[in-house]
Specification:
The chain is an alpha/beta fold. It folds into two domains: 2-140 and 300-331, Medium-chain alcohol dehydrogenases, catalytic domain (Quinone Oxidoreductase, Chain A, domain 1); 144-276, Rossmann fold, CATH 3.40.50. Helix content is 28%, strand content 27%. The chain contains ten helices and 17 strands. It has helices spanning 38-44, 91-94, 135-139, 141-157, 174-185, 198-208, 234-243, 264-269, 282-293, 311-320; strands spanning 2-8, 11-16, 26-35, 60-68, 78-81, 84-85, 105-106, 118-122, 126-128, 166-170, 190-194, 211-213, 224-229, 244-252, 273-276, 303-307, 327-331. Strands 3, 4, 5, 8, 9, 16 and 17 form a seven-stranded mixed sheet that branches.
Length: 332
């Protein structure tokens, strides 16, 4: 089968590789569509030591079962999935917080991912979708669930309902735009998104219908009840602390930089809540499928689709900031 293989930093090559073997309790999927994630970009750039050259990346997928070694999964059915493969028995897993499982592995990191014509995955990681759900919508389940999970955590801490809050989203990549769409769905009318890429700013205005500003050249507003940092850089952490109101909540989602100073004096004296989040639970994935399948996040016209063979160029376009699309899907 054909697969995009990460061969060295900033290089993907289309190779002919062996098709995945079927193991007990697993299925093999014909991949219909797979998204390019920011973590895939991070690995491609050589910044993730966990993802080593020779690996097939890709973990935002939808596919059809062609072989099944799990009695509950029928051949010919379509699924998306949770790329986190967890133990199922630890305290976190039995609490429904499987994203925190200490024994987790991951599709596209510790095993071959979905930048290929076929991929294997445990049946326990599959997430059901309506069989007529579009591949475009289904392949957005994973990133949308990341935003969904983070917003749900934020709402547990906010002192007022989210629709009453003034909300700032930092970063207009796929997590940022999906978060903005979810905030709009939840009734947020005072919504601002910051994005440095002029092409994406236009996409955000068209898709979300909110105020979008350039943080490099525009004055960043302040007085927000909730800040959603989808970038996670040193500069955006500073922006978050400057923009947040006393008693507000900052949700830290992105991981562009791993360390920086935080204004702990303001955090303390202003009673600011700073939260971190990691991925999603199975419940988040199922809820996201339901919302996407009902069209609650819009027509998704801002998603770009390319062939698997165009994958190397798609990575270069995203890295160079020359694509207006916050998300590019590859179609094997």
């Amino acid at each position: 089968m054909k697969a995009l293989v990460y061969t060295q930093p900033r290089e993907l090559q289309l190779h002919e590789v062996d098709a995945p073997a079927l193991s007990d309790g697993e299925v093999i999927l014909d991949i219909e569509a797979v998204g390019i994630c920011g973590s895939d970009m991070h690995a491609w750039a050589g910044h993730d030591p966990r993802r080593k050259p020779g690996l097939i990346l890709g973990h935002e997928f939808v596919g059809k079962v062609v072989s099944s070694a799990a009695p509950s999964v029928l051949e010919g059915t379509r699924w998306t999935g949770n790329p986190l493969i967890t133990c199922g028995v630890c305290d976190y897993c039995v609490q429904g917080r499987n994203n925190l499982c200490g024994d987790r592995t991951m599709v596209g990191m510790t095993r071959a991912g979905a930048y290929a014509e076929q991929m294997s995955i445990p049946a326990s990681s599959l997430v059901a979708i309506p069989q007529d759900m579009s591949a475009r919508a289904a392949a957005l389940t994973e990133p949308a669930a990341t935003a969904w999970h983070a917003i749900n955590l934020s709402m547990r801490v906010l002192t007022r309902p989210i629709h009453e809050c003034r909300v700032l989203v930092i970063g207009g990549g796929v997590i940022g735009i999906l978060a903005a769409l979810l905030f709009k769905r939840l009734g947020v009318s005072q919504l601002v998104v910051t994005e440095t890429n002029a092409l994406r700013r236009k996409t955000l205005r068209d898709a979300v219908g909110c105020e979008v500003i350039d943080p490099l050249n525009d004055t960043l507003p302040q007085g927000f009840d909730h800040v959603f940092d989808a970038v996670g850089a040193k500069a955006t952490r500073v922006q978050s602390m400057e923009a947040i109101s006393p008693g507000g909540v900052i949700m830290h989602v992105g991981l562009q930089d791993w360390a920086s100073e935080i204004d702990m004096r303001k955090l303390t004296l202003a009673e600011v809540s700073l939260l971190g989040t990691y991925t999603y639970t199975m419940a988040d994935l199922r809820a996201t499928v339901a919302a996407l399948s009902r069209g609650e996040l819009g027509d998704l016209a801002w998603v770009e689709e390319r062939s698997l063979a165009e994958g190397p160029q798609a990575f270069l376009c995203l890295a160079g900031g020359v694509s207006s699309a916050p998300k590019i899907l590859l179609r094997p």
